[in-house]
Write a structure and sequence with these properties.
alpha/beta; Rossmann fold; two-stranded antiparallel sheet; about 30% helix; about 25% strand; binds S-adenosyl-L-homocysteine
């Protein structure tokens, strides 16, 4: 098949790609109607550069500058469902705002999203995008999220969108009782997606499968 330049793709091509992607998301086991509705509502093409808009509904991570990527949409949907599990969580922390796409999807589903990003330019751009979308329940932080975001803790859910070497203890500490943390753990490009659940004084850890994220780094830039 001859692939055409993204800028020449028509809106129809984009909506056909979007429908195919929703099928892929359902096939990956995402069935929660609220998650499907959120993914359907948020236009992923608004979270990538103009030159990449034609590829916005491919199930791929795409570059967003600063050596970072917007996460794969099937993984965004899967992680969102695994975090919320059909419940409306009150407060959720996202570590790694990036493009703001996952943030916008979460904001449709939970009370308040607290999202931290270590690259100032990405945080600012995400803030502008979500404001343009009329999203009012998100607090943006320009911070190293390796240690969570203490002032607003505890959280019923914490979602980390970059690969950590190990589960940071601070994140587990910032989980509310019954809270769930989703975090990719392992080397760059191949991590195991861990679900960490806090039940009273015990912590349960489960592997949900392989994922591929950019690394969780310390410090701010
Ligand atoms: N969910 C985002 C994923 C972006 S990639 C999206 O779909 O667009 C992961 C992001 O995590 C990058 O923007 C990177 O800068 C950020 N990141 C990495 N380490 C971090 C840290 N310690 N604190 C906050 N953000 C971090």
């Amino acid at each position: 098949m001859i692939s055409r330049g993204s800028s020449r793709r028509s809106p129809n091509t984009l909506s056909a790609a979007r429908a195919r992607l929703l099928d892929e998301i359902r096939q990956a086991g995402v069935s929660d109607p609220a998650v499907i509705a959120a993914i359907t509502k948020i236009p992923r093409e608004l979270f990538v550069d103009d030159a990449l808009k034609g590829r916005a509904y491919e199930n791929n991570a795409l570059p967003i500058g600063h050596a970072q990527t917007i996460s794969q949409p099937v993984v965004v949907a899967y992680m969102t469902q695994a975090l919320t599990q059909g419940r409306k969580l009150d407060r959720v922390l996202e570590v790694g705002t990036g493009s703001g796409y996952q943030t916008a999807v979460l904001a449709e589903l939970v009370g308040t999203v607290f999202t931290v990003e270590r690259i100032r330019a990405l945080s600012e751009l995400a803030r502008q995008r979500l404001s343009a979308l009329g999203c009012r329940n998100v607090h943006f932080g320009y911070a190293d999220g390796m240690n969570g975001w203490t002032p607003y803790a505890p959280y019923q859910g914490i979602l980390v969108t970059a690969g950590a070497e190990q589960v940071p203890a601070a994140l587990v500490e910032q989980l509310a009782p019954g809270g769930r943390l989703l975090i990719p753990v392992g080397p760059q490009g191949r991590q195991s997606l861990k679900l960490v659940e806090r039940r009273g004084s015990t912590v349960r850890e489960q592997d949900l499968g392989w994922v591929s994220f950019v690394p969780l780094l310390s410090g701010k830039v």
